[in-house]
Amino acid sequence: MSKEKDPKENIxxxxxxxxxxxxxxxxxxxxxxxxxxxxxxRWEEFARFANEDIxxxxxxxxxxxxxxxxxxxxxxxxxxxxxxxxxQLEDLLHRRGxxxxxxxxxxxxxxxxxxxxxxADGAENQDGLIAEEVERGYMLNGxxxxxxxxxxxxxxxx
Amino acid sequence: xxxxxxxxxxxxxxxxxxxxxxDPKILENVEGNRTTPSVVAISxxxxxxxxxxxxxxxxxxxxxxxxxxxxxxxxxFSDPEVQKDKKISSFEIRExxxxxxxxxxxxxxxxxxxxxxxxxxxxKKDAEEKLGESIEEVVITVPAYFDDSQRQATKNAGExxxxxxxxxxxxxxxxxxxxxxxxxxxxxxxxxxxxxGTFDISVLEVGDNTVExxxxxxxxxxxxxxxxxxxxxxxxxxxxxxxxxxxxxxPLALQRLREAAxxxxxxxxxxxxxxxxxxxxxxxASGPKHFVxxxxxxxxxxxxxxxxDKSIKLVEEVVTSPSPKGAGLKLSDIDEVIMVGGQTRMPxxxxxxxxxxxxxxxxxxxxxxxxxxxxxxxxxILQGDVKDVLLLDxxxxxxxxxxxxxxxxxxxxxxxxxxTSKSQIFSTAADNQTSVEIHVLQGERxxxxxxxxxxxxxxxxxxPSPRGVPQVEVSFDIDANGILSVKAKDKSSGKEQSIKIExxxxxxxxxxxKMKKDAEAHAEDDEKKKEAAEAKNLAEQLVYTTEKALKDxxxxxxxxxxxxVQEKVEELKKVKDxxxxxxxxxxTENLSKEIQKIGEYMQKNPTPKASEPKETKKEESxxxxxxxxxxxxxxxxx
Lengths: 158, 638
Hints:
The complex is a heterodimer. Chain A folds into 2 domains: about 5-50; about 50-155, Head domain of nucleotide exchange factor GrpE (Nucleotide Exchange Factor Grpe, Chain A, domain 2), CATH 2.30.22.10. In chain A, about 55% of the residues lie in helices and about 20% in strands. Chain A has 3 helices and 6 strands; from the N terminus they run αααββββββ. In chain A, a hairpin with a 2-residue loop joins strand 4 and strand 5 (about 145). The longest helix of chain A is centred in the N-terminal third of the chain and has 43 residues, at about 5-50. Chain B is α+β, with helices and mostly antiparallel strands. Chain B folds into 5 domains: about 5-175, ATPase, nucleotide binding domain (Nucleotidyltransferase, domain 5), CATH 3.30.420; about 180-220 and about 310-365, 2-Layer Sandwich (Nucleotidyltransferase, domain 5); about 225-305, Alpha-Beta Complex (Actin, Chain A, domain 4), CATH 3.90.640.10; about 400-520, Substrate Binding Domain Of DNAk, Chain A, domain 1, CATH 2.60.34.10; about 525-635, Substrate Binding Domain Of Dnak, Chain:A, Domain 2 (Up-down Bundle), CATH 1.20.1270.10. In chain B, strands 1, 2, 3, 4, 11 and 12 form a 6-stranded mixed sheet that branches. In chain B, strands 15-14-13-18 form a 4-stranded mixed sheet, sandwiched between helices. Residues about 385-390 and about 610-638 of chain B have low confidence and may be disordered. The chains are: A alpha+beta, B alpha+beta. At the A-B interface, helix 1, helix 2, strand 2 and strand 6 of A face helix 1, helix 7 and strand 16 of B.
């Protein structure tokens, strides 16, 4: 009898093959079920953040609006209607889940919400605290879509 | 078995990917981004930060924020590269006892591999969170020029992060893997990798599943950031000329301008012109100032021409210089060119590379992600996912049945992975039709007569009923061996018939190709024929429903309306069996309009049975799609 036909060896070989196929099958099944779950999650996220792109683009217009209002306030009276338009825009975005990130002077700097872009001279006990907001930050449905750009105090030892 | 993660551990940014269902896929980090800044920091509150968060606090804490550690890993302190970096880095570096480098972060001195390990650790954690399973093994990419010590240090970084590094592969090799170039025989490949901060060139020789690096080169301090800088300087200069204001003195303005320059650069990769529009950028004695400037693609190409030329010159050197400086090849010896790195999206850069090699470079995969994708493919090969153990077949051609008018209605489209099954409901084309013929077809053409017949059978014993009423469910099932079973079942009587076709995929490769080519060649023709058949079907159906409606409305509508409708029916009947499609369509359209008068009339003059015209309208609106009829063909076809 040739070696190949040794039944024991054959059974071993078949067992191995069987195992390999079974594992492959299980893996494929698992992959599919995982993929389905992932896909569902992706869709949920997609639905939630589908507006994110356009809202992100709108942020720079909100910035410009604020700058414009501030400049107008400085040079004289601002027509009330302009504020109302700003409110309309902000209301609309608020309803879509957009929230401003509140910044106060002396707040602790948190890189999860804030992006440090500049330093400002400060007292020793102010070191590392926020000095000023440079650009407003926003969250959309609880996710930071733009961190607030801030100035942070730095104490220079003399 | 757990998944093996593929990691592109970059100088500025890192990315990770896994193979899922046989294809590589980028994994997002917990912040929801596809790349993670390669930055590590110890914050004031002694918290370790990695990635975006570390980057955001960098300027508040420069001495404890470590970036670009890849430039230091595995190098001796005396290495000129390290000395160069020492001068520009914001953190402290010293010589370690073994002659290597040590970096100070917080109160501790770390080896570069420990810093890299923190980045890898974050990626591992984020991947685990995303996948819901633990990651124990990884494939990490390194530049082709990395020496043994740099590779070993990268491997150690993985181990420190608690990962088993299954393999360290070259970044250009990963890119070649992602484009599937590794399978080619004896090819010479150039990888042009223009990242944010570094420019790497590699010449590879690919053959028989081996990839040999013939030569490398580049510039470790040339990258996309230099492009942004030039554009920004241009904008500042132009503004000074126009308005006499120097915005570079205003840090806030500079901040906005930097972002605008980067955005403009991105936009000009796809459009020819963009506008940088920053209202209230600054102010002077005369009041607020705005920044509005047009920027064209031609302009930024002119601004950055020197950088591109420099990169092309370097490529030429690496390819043509004799070994060991270069690969000692002719430019014409190169078979494939791959472009990697975000900056290669710039059309002028692609054009310059194309002109140099007179060859279209490989594009298509996101150039920021291609290396991580390749790492994942290598991981997939190691974990056996990409091994052809379980070879899943696909149906090479579409399968379906013949329906009214000789149309080939496809149930299973070509390239569907088998085993698979699909069913659809069909109906009859004539009143009191008691049998339907199921003609099983294969091919890509639109008409049954041009397709290959696989088999035929008849389902009879349908209870006599008006056309379109019986519901015949036709199911196709292909098992893992490619055997096709077709079953037809009448839903009301429960009667069924079936056929088994073994040779459905028994076509030779040539036959399949021929059938596909035929379909392409006749696509337009077939579309017309199908349109004709559908127009005739629609006409047929409309005549039928109209006559039925007239009968139902008998005595409830005025003779005028009845006469008008009948005339239009006759007109349609005259043309419907001829080949003038536009005439059929016109007559059908006329009749549809006319028939609405019945409904209108009956709404204005309601009778208890006023719902019936509505029914007519409903049917008329979708005459043939929901109930594709499979007729007793001898009667219907001719």
